[in-house]
Inverse folding.
């Protein structure tokens, strides 16, 4: 089976320091691939390389059979990628409905827009907040709104950078169920996450990054049972402190 | 069609607003019948500047790009009209062709300058600095063209004394030409301005407009929703600057005269004062506010030009301090609110 996302020998340096170093990674269609690792492991940098907000120093990225290594972010989005970034980033001054509208309008014809917009707002539980500026929503609601905007594009590959940061345990669980439903419907999902319970809930495969390199890869059970993985987490004084 | 005029990007979307707008338009149409020709010419002069203000409103208020270059494009349009009209003559649609060509020159210059700025990732305050420098460079260049060697074809640029000798606009009409002066020019401008206003409202409430305000709010998020942010910015910059070029060409046709001082620093600051005072986030507010300011400025200038300039500066400071979203936007919003209360 051909991988949807193929990362080969990917490196990115910042002033001589390797943030991402010689990474090979495949993300297969339909899987929920979780990327974990201690602080500064290079997870977010790797995401930004995949999305195109950073360009790599070395290596290549292929998506859906196409070389996207040097492609600007908006082209990658149009090939079928979509991202929820780490810090909630919504159009704060614009009303919630318009945030959703802007995400939908590329794909959805005008006559169906209103209906799609309502459906998505219902799914996000934000129908009652539709007219409020997005910046006035709670942190958790903004996270959901941004996930909703990423979903509005109906991507082949959905990238979620810490989707549960700042969510209550109940919201976290609901986010997990949503992600699982999306994967069942055929979407491929890649997640950077600190919350191991969440990873256990959703992951079909886990990659551990450490100091910019791939440290381990396998099923959730295998990763959780791996003493070396526990060591890099426990051995780092600030492990898990930033979630 | 009517629906598409209205939307989240404009204040005044209800039936009441449009009835009011039509009433204002009707008054404007009737105005030459009751006013003396001097006032009609004067009002035509006010209308000329509003194109430029609307262009800045689009770029700055909707697109988040503060351009100090409106008078640069005004100058290109104004001098462009003069040079072309003098060379090809006004008859048989010549002056209209000069108008279109002059505006095209401004648009082309905007595309080139905008390309290097936007694709060179010059953003924020540097966008203002580059556009201002370009403007001052043009003013300085035209200012030193006093010598007889500075001619384009038969048109002499004439340095600080200003270029003159071009004809007013003439409208070809079934074999004869109508001179667009006084009332005729006023009506021409009125229709052109109304069409521009309607066109811009359609634009900002369209899908394009949605993306434009999204880019203003968060360019990275907009790009990550699949939008080619820089292309949207470039198109917006060209439209906004083109409107300044239109103001310039119309200004020269109106007065048959243009000088470098209409490009230089005090002139370049004016559109920013108008739009900031009126409220950059809304086209209607910019339209009304600019008209009010031009009217007030001219009234005061009759007594003292210096105090008029000082007053404009004070107005800008007061707006920034006390009504950062602009005075007309504030008025518009409280009107909307009071209507909503009465309706509900």
């Amino acid at each position: 089976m051909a991988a949807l996302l193929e990362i080969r020998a990917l490196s990115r340096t910042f002033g001589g320091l390797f943030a991402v170093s010689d990474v090979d990674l495949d993300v297969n269609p339909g899987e929920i691939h979780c990327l974990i690792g201690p602080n500064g492991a290079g997870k977010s940098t790797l995401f930004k390389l995949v999305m195109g907000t950073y360009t790599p120093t070395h290596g290549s990225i292929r998506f859906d059979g196409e070389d996207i290594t040097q492609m600007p972010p908006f082209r990658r989005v149009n090939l079928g990628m979509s991202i929820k970034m780490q810090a909630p980033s919504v159009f704060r001054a614009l009303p919630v409905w318009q945030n959703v509208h802007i995400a939908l309008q590329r794909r959805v014809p005008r006559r169906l827009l209103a209906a799609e917009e309502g459906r998505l707002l219902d799914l996000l539980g934000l129908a009652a907040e539709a007219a409020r500026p997005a910046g006035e929503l709670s942190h958790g609601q903004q996270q959901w709104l941004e996930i909703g905007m990423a979903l509005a594009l109906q991507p082949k590959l959905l990238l979620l950078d810490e989707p549960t940061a700042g969510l209550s345990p109940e919201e976290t669980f609901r986010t997990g169920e949503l992600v699982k439903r999306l994967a069942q419907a055929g979407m491929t999902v890649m997640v950077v996450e600190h919350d191991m319970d969440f990873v256990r809930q959703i992951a079909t495969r886990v990659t551990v990054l450490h100091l910019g390199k791939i440290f381990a890869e396998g099923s959730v059970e295998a990763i959780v049972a791996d003493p070396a993985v526990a060591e890099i987490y426990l051995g780092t004084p600030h492990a898990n402190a930033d979630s | 069609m009517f629906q598409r005029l209205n939307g989240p990007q404009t204040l005044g979307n209800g039936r009441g607003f449009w009835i009011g707008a039509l009433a204002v338009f009707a008054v404007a149409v009737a105005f030459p019948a009751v006013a003396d020709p001097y006032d009609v010419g004067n009002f035509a002069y006010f209308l000329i500047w509003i194109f430029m203000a609307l262009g800045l409103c689009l770029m700055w208020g909707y697109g988040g790009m503060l351009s100090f270059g409106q008078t640069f494009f005004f100058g290109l349009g104004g001098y462009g009209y003069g040079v072309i009209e003098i060379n090809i003559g006004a008859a048989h649609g010549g002056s209209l062709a000069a108008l279109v060509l002059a505006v095209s020159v401004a648009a082309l210059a905007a595309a080139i300058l905008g390309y290097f700025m936007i694709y060179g990732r010059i953003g924020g305050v540097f966008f203002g600095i580059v556009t201002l420098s370009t403007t001052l460079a043009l003013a300085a260049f035209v200012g030193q063209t006093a010598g007889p060697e500075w001619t384009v074809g038969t048109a002499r640029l004439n340095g600080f004394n200003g270029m003159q000798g071009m004809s007013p606009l003439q409208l070809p009409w079934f074999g004869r030409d109508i001179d667009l002066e006084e009332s005729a020019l006023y009506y021409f401008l009125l229709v052109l301005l109304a069409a521009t206003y309607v066109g811009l409202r359609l634009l900002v409430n369209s899908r394009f407009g949605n993306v434009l305000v999204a880019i203003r709010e968060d360019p990275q998020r907009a790009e990550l929703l699949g939008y080619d942010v820089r292309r949207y910015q470039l198109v917006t910059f060209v439209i906004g600057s083109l409107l300044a070029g239109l103001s310039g060409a119309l200004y020269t046709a109106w007065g048959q005269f243009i000088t470098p001082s209409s490009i230089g620093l005090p002139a370049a600051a004016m559109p920013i004062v108008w739009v900031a005072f009126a409220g950059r986030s809304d086209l209607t507010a910019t339209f009304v506010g600019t008209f009010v300011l031009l009217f007030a400025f001219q009234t005061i200038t009759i007594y003292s030009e210096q105090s008029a300039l000082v007053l404009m500066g004070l107005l800008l400071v007061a707006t920034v301090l006390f009504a950062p979203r602009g005075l007309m936007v504030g008025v518009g919003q409280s009107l909307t609110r009071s209507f909503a209360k009465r309706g509900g």
User: Anything to note?
Assistant: Chain B is about 70% helix and 5% strand. Strands of chain B lie at 151-152, 155-156, 163-164, 170-173, 176-179, 257-258. The mean pLDDT of chain B is 92.
